[in-house]
Amino acid sequence: DWTDKGAAVIYKIEKNPSSDEQATKIIKKGVKDFNFGRTLGEGSYSTVVAATDRQTLKEYAIKILDKRHIIKEKKVKYVNIEKNTLNRLGDHPGVVSLYYTFQDERSLFYVLDLAANGELLGVLKRLGSFDEECTRYYGGQILDALDYMHTKGIIHRDLKPENILLDEHMRIKLTDFGTAKILDQNEGESQDQARANSFVGTAEYVSPELLTDKAAYKSSDLWAFGCIIYQLLSGRPPFKASNEYQTFQKIVHLDYSFPLGFPAHARDLVSKLLVLDPKDRLTIEDIKKHEFFAGVEWGRAIWKANPPKLR
Ligand code: ADE
């Protein structure tokens, strides 16, 4: 259902300044409250548009979803997953925040943080590849955001450079939680190998367990993280073929190799993440202690550091 709780803004209006009496009026944001601008991105079920709050002049990215299309394609479940995960994730610098949701006859509207510098993929394509310092900086932020998500019991399941956005300070924000999995209480807290079922993400970043057992774990996001570290340093993902089937074959056979000159510490890290058995991959804690991330001050500090010159 598309009922809308928790998206209302409550204004307290003092009726009479000399008394304590207050009237509370609940005003819900709607389409009329925003000026819509340029298109930021287009997906199969949605369009993301830049918009400005007419009152505060604050800029947002609004994801507009076509209700008829979503119902016809049976994607209602995913639309609700996206809203529920974003609500559960609340406020973290590495995850896009959801501020309001509303709808009109045709569309659903999700009002999100605007990430002024677009997708990490765009920056990577412009540069070809990143040096070790840049990879450590962006990789460290991606890992910290993943750590937060996993702590909240959420598996992303479609982590890739298109879903990693960059804000005005060139800091990352994860987006696109439409295919995330919310683990239930005991799964989220104790069971690191808690299983989430079905759904296949983007071919190049899909974990082998998803292809062979239709299972996704928190460590499936770490497989994707390994693919991303490899891609930032070399310019291309480790498993890539001319079609999805061939890509899947490469993944389940762990058929990849490092290009010449791939940095040694990064090579060690990636080879301990791209491991077929999800139980044998490094954990987030292991990764934080790995030589590749030596010198990184984990915690809130990584969200204050200035980005290195892109190289
Ligand atoms: N493209 C998709 N989502 C976006 C966002 N929140 N900010 C900027 N560009 C986007």
From TrEMBL:
One of its GO terms (molecular function) is ATP binding. GO terms for biological process: intracellular signal transduction. ATP binds at K63. The keyword Nucleotide-binding applies. Residues 34-293 form the Protein kinase domain. Keywords: ATP-binding, Kinase, Nucleotide-binding, Serine/threonine-protein kinase, Transferase. Belongs to the protein kinase superfamily. AGC Ser/Thr protein kinase family. PDPK1 subfamily. This is non-specific serine/threonine protein kinase.
